[in-house]
Amino acid sequence: MIFTLPKLSYAFNALEPYIDAQTMEIHYTKHHQTYVNNLNKALETHPELEIIDLKSLLANLNSLPSDIQTAVKNNAGGHYNHSFFWDVMTEEKNTKPSEKLNAALISTFGSFEDFKSEFTKAAMGRFGSGWAWLILDEKQKLAVASTANQDCPISEEKTPLLALDVWEHAYYLKYQNRRNEYIENWWNVVNWDKVNSLFSEDIN
Ligand code: MN
């Protein structure tokens, strides 16, 4: 199985002014493409592996040959996390959490604002490179999490619902060291329709 860069559903400039076109283009065509290429390169060395899909690869890192575990963790993670990230952003204005998701956010975090501040804290508190997440944990409960590097919640049996890339490559051109401003602006492009549907798929 050869992995490929997924098609973006919006133009590089669609998320302006919150995420600038140049950052989007470099992030997608260079950074994301490199994870895809390096994932394929690592898997090429083990043609005997039967790869079903990206998710199963990430869920079963420990069963991979040890010489490619790290490369697959980093690059399958990089491929999955970025594909997911593009999908939870949109140029559509006015998407919002469904009633069901909003109720769950309130019951878990106290209020929508409390959820946002906990997520922001996770994104600000990630030292170095990584991601902030809204996930469903093993017990199907909402939680905020952060992962280092390209580590993916799927490898810890968690279901991602929302992700924010806090690697410097995601914001440096426009925001330089101002990660807080990037995070604050990013809320304007969250695709709540997508988050709602991921939440409904998993919670019945
Ligand atoms: Mn990135």
The CATH topology of the largest domain is given as: minor pseudopilin epsh fold
Number of helices: 8
Major beta sheet summary: 3 strands, antiparallel
Series of secondary-structure elements, N-terminal to C-terminal: HHHHHEEEHHH
Spans where pLDDT lies below 50 across 5 or more residues: none
Question: Care to count the β-strands?
Answer: 3
Query: What hetero molecules are bound to the protein chains?
Result: manganese (II) ion
Q: Kindly, what is the distance between the CA atoms of the first and last residues, rounded to a whole number of angstroms?
A: 33 Å
Query: Which structural class should the secondary elements be placed in?
Result: mainly alpha
Q: Reading side by side through the largest sheet, how are the strands ordered?
A: 2-1-3
Share of helix, binned: 40-55%
Function: Destroys radicals which are normally produced within the cells and which are toxic to biological systems.
Organism: candidate division WWE3 bacterium RIFOXYC1_FULL_39_7
EC number: 1.15.1.1
Catalytic activity: 2 superoxide + 2 H(+) = H2O2 + O2
